[in-house]
Amino acid sequence: MNFWYQKGIPAWLLSPLALLFWGVTALRRFAYRIGLFKSWKAPVPVVVIGNLSVGGNGKTPFTIWLARQLQQRGLKVGIISRGYAPGSDRAKQYPLLVSADSDPAEVGDEPVLIARRTGAGIAISPDRRQSISLLNKAYHIDVILSDDGLQHYALQRDIEVAVIDGQRRFGNGFLLPAGPLRELPNRLKGVDAVVCNGDNAQAGEIEMRLQAEVAVNLLTQEERPLSEFIAQPIVAMAAIGNPQRFFNMLKKKQFNVVKQKAFVDHAQFSEEKLAALATARQPLFMTEKDAVKCSRFARANWWYVPVEAQLQPTINGLIEKIMQEVNGEQ
């Protein structure tokens, strides 16, 4: 919502509800802290990767990057997610294992994307304990990465990582529904690492940049350098938390974007809906997260742009801390 990023009349009108939201969340967190609400300790270390604000922070690319880093160090990584799939095709039972071939309409687009990029064991369920138990039984994992769940205090965690959007930061600074925040920024004082996606990293934050170099054809899987498309007009679409970030990336690379279409995050598509966006001679560009939902009915002029996370060397301190947790070192 646009008013989340300015302190205008709508935000102030909703501020009493934001105050109520703060009170409820603060009481809930306090109840877990004193043991009034019970939390569960997993048999393996848990790394929670979350955010303070709603959507589009770069959490999924970071999760992929971190999973690969830990796999390169010989760890069996398990990843849990609540899963998100709007509509009637949502999974009928949980927990559910996710593979690269799972139906995004059933398990969600992000879990399928992570499965394709990492090959890690992935399970989805609103009950994180169920997912961890299933993964541990199926794969005998060494460490769990929780994709989201910073505010899910029913699950104890060994390490917390918060990912923030360097451009939008904390919006107007209000909590939901007056602003985009789930918790106040001072919550960052309690996490183990703050990863800033893009520009404007502050002191103590680890800068992450998302690099895009190629386009991949949805139909043939052919890869082409992005530079080959600069001279021709293209159409761009995105159904992610912050679509404008994708559009800005294309324009920064000097693409001639003649039309752009933003959909709600996790939107479901049909061949007819996307075919109407571009003619057969116009390349239609989308994010990799969108592509996992469209590959089964792809056309020859549809391309997606994979991104690779690049992080400052200071991130090595976080990786070493995770390895110490896995090895039982204090």
TrEMBL record:
EC number(s) recorded for this UniProt protein: 2.7.1.130
Positions that bind ATP: S53, V54, G55, G56, N57, G58, K59, T60
SUPFAM superfamilies (UniProt xref): P-loop containing nucleoside triphosphate hydrolases
Pathway given in the UniProt record: Glycolipid biosynthesis; lipid IV(A) biosynthesis; lipid IV(A) from (3R)-3-hydroxytetradecanoyl-[acyl-carrier-protein] and UDP-N-acetyl-alpha-D-glucosamine: step 6/6
Any one GO cellular component localisation term in the record: plasma membrane
Top EC category: transferase
GO biological process: lipid A biosynthetic process; lipopolysaccharide core region biosynthetic process
Record has Transferase as a keyword: yes
Domain of life: Bacteria
GO molecular function: ATP binding; lipid-A 4'-kinase activity
Catalytic activity: a lipid A disaccharide + ATP = a lipid IVA + ADP + H(+)
Keywords assigned: ATP-binding, Kinase, Lipid A biosynthesis, Lipid biosynthesis, Lipid metabolism, Nucleotide-binding, Transferase
Function field: Transfers the gamma-phosphate of ATP to the 4'-position of a tetraacyldisaccharide 1-phosphate intermediate (termed DS-1-P) to form tetraacyldisaccharide 1,4'-bis-phosphate (lipid IVA).
Family: Belongs to the LpxK family.
Protein name per Swiss-Prot or TrEMBL: Tetraacyldisaccharide 4'-kinase
Gene giving rise to this polypeptide: lpxK
